[in-house]
Amino acid sequence: MIATESLSKRFPRVTALDRLSMDIGPGVTGLVGANGAGKSTLIKILLGLSPATEGRAVVLGLDVATEGAAIRERVGYMPEHDCLPPDVSATEFVVHMARMSGLPPTAARERTADTLRHVGLYEERYRPIGGYSTGMKQRVKLAQALVHDPQLVFLDEPTNGLDPVGRDDMLDLIRRVHTDFGISVLVTSHLLGELERTCDHVVVVDGGKLLRSSSTTDFTQTTTTLAIEVTDSDEHPDGTRALREAFALRDIETTTGGELPGAGHTVLITTQSDDTYDLVRDIVAELGLGLIRMEQRRHHIAEVFRSETDNERKEAVTHGG
Ligand SMILES: Nc1ncnc2c1ncn2[C@@H]1O[C@H](COP(=O)(O)OP(=O)(O)OP(=O)(O)O)[C@@H](O)[C@H]1O
What we know:
transport, Rossmann fold, nucleotide-binding, 10 helices, 4-stranded antiparallel beta sheet, 36% helix, ABC transporter ATP-binding protein, 14 strands, 6-stranded mixed beta sheet, binds adenosine-5'-triphosphate
């Protein structure tokens, strides 16, 4: 869908993209990086709106340097910042955008009604946009990116300014853009964790450089930590404690699950081999407790990223950089 080769963009005082090479296939891809990492710059180059200083990029088989107009016919774009006219309704605005994309009047009106319904705007679509909440404005921006039925959409920070519930709703909507319509998505965020659930693939950029590109499941592969939760019993009113003591008798180190509510009831041990599962089962049975949960912990993208960044810092220090 998208391929870049040694793509660079230099402004007089800053290098926004630094020899970025990557391949993005169909599905939902997250482009993650801190503010200023170069995400918006990359999107503008991929749309053919801003020339690269060096390197090349191809979107849907089209060269960004020479075929920008053809790319924009096939690709929808939801910009990051508020860019909606306050005094027209969502319907008027999205119909206008559909017409700009070349749809005839009737098709533009029909597609607008369908798309606004799909993004969850109903009666309010006839009211002026100026009175909308941030969540509703984000939905209008998403609708105008989808109205001409593109093959691919670029969504720049679509969860910006939303509260946690609004953010979850937007992420679900983004997932459905792909599952319901088969449209591929490139979505940016400065929050690593939020894309874990939504994206098939994650690309991490930092200071305009590619830090990592892999499938979300590679990021969140299982760890060697086993999380165990047990019931209490009459004999052991604190089942968690009894379990930890039983492990200690066998020289197995345990910790509890952390700071989150309820995490004190989760016992964590390191798996040595497949026998560890049998051992846990036997110990729990011996104590006469019920086993509520026994599962291998998974990494969160943010943890992986944090430890990789820490390692890089350590290396930089070691090498005097
Ligand atoms: N037109 C421009 N002129 C000069 N510098 C620019 C221009 N556009 C972007 N930059 C700089 O390039 C770097 C990357 O900016 P970019 O907007 O691509 O980052 P981003 O990852 O999208 O972050 P954000 O989410 O904050 O927009 C930043 O240092 C920014 O200040």
